[in-house]
Amino acid sequence: MKNILILWMLAIISTPLWSAVPIITVPEISSTLEIELYEDSQGLFAMKLMEYYKMAVILETQLKILGVEAKNKAKQPVFEELEDMELNILRKYHKIAKSLEKEVIGAPDSDRQILLEKINELESRMRDTVAIYTIEKGAERNKILDLMVQSLKQVEETNSKNIELVINQNFVNCMDYKTLVSVAGVSKIFFSQGDGKVTNDPGLGLQFSVNLGKMVGFWEGFEIRYEYLAPKFFTNYEELPLMPHYREQWNTNISSVSAGGKIELNKTENVVQGFNLFLGYFWADGYIYNQGQHRMNFDGGLMSLEYYLGSPGCKYPIEIFGGISVFNSFSKSLVFNTGVAGFEQIDIGKTHLSVNLGLRYNIWRTPF
Fold first, then answer.
1. Confidence tier at 8 by pLDDT (50, 70, 90)
2. How far is 72 from 100, CA to CA, in rounded Å?
3. ∠ CA 264-266-272 to the nearest 5 degrees?
4. Which residue, 45, 211, 218, 344, is the most exposed by fewest CB within 10 angstroms?
């Protein structure tokens, strides 16, 4: 880096040297009338004095580069000279600079020629050195890059194999995972007695299950389930003479809590199937908007049996299921209390059957 800076400095300085011209030209000293203006301002006087001194230093340096000993030396001004502000001081420093300029012009050509040859030799050496350095470093860099590329390829191949191994291992292990938490959407339709006086359309519901098998310790598939249903029940009054097709829709809510679990029948790498068996308790209520006398309350025991089909792995934690449920009350019948004459109480019995279809998503599966 040092050699390069020197080379640039020599190249810049050498341009005027080769033509036997001083680096700077010292102008003729100003007329007496003009130079007297510098006596009135200490700042202008100091600026002019330092200008002549700077010229002298540059020209003396040029002579040293040429290999010539300067006869006149650049003399540094002192503070007293700046304070005095006399015209003869300016003339003194102008004379030194002018004398050094003449020495540069009169320097022998042989000295300049030697300097030119040295500069050319240094430039040639520097070009060769830079070229060789660039080639050597470029080759080393290419070798390093080739090694890095090979290393990255090996790392990529190793990582790909490891990732594939982890995925496969996880898939195999996940077949034995147990579902801790699952949620399902379900649709149910009810079948009851009552000679068509009470009907219903398929209603939507939600199931939420938690596996407590590890906690209870006797059945790994043991679950506690909460289910909410909102079926659409209708009371029909076909026998009314004035309104032969009149019916009312009830706002109905059915909740249940049950316990049970999975009975696995078969499991392969792609499919697992079996039954869900649950027993529990349910409670229900219903009413018609803006009809205070229309009420329904019912509760009792629940049993449900479902067939399920799903994936044993963790990639597709979804099951489809379908089954039947039995709602039964041993103490009272399901009665719809209405305000319609002749249909004040519609009794549709103690036992009611439902058919359901749903989709379950296993939120949390774990090997523990």
1. very low
2. 6
3. 80
4. 218
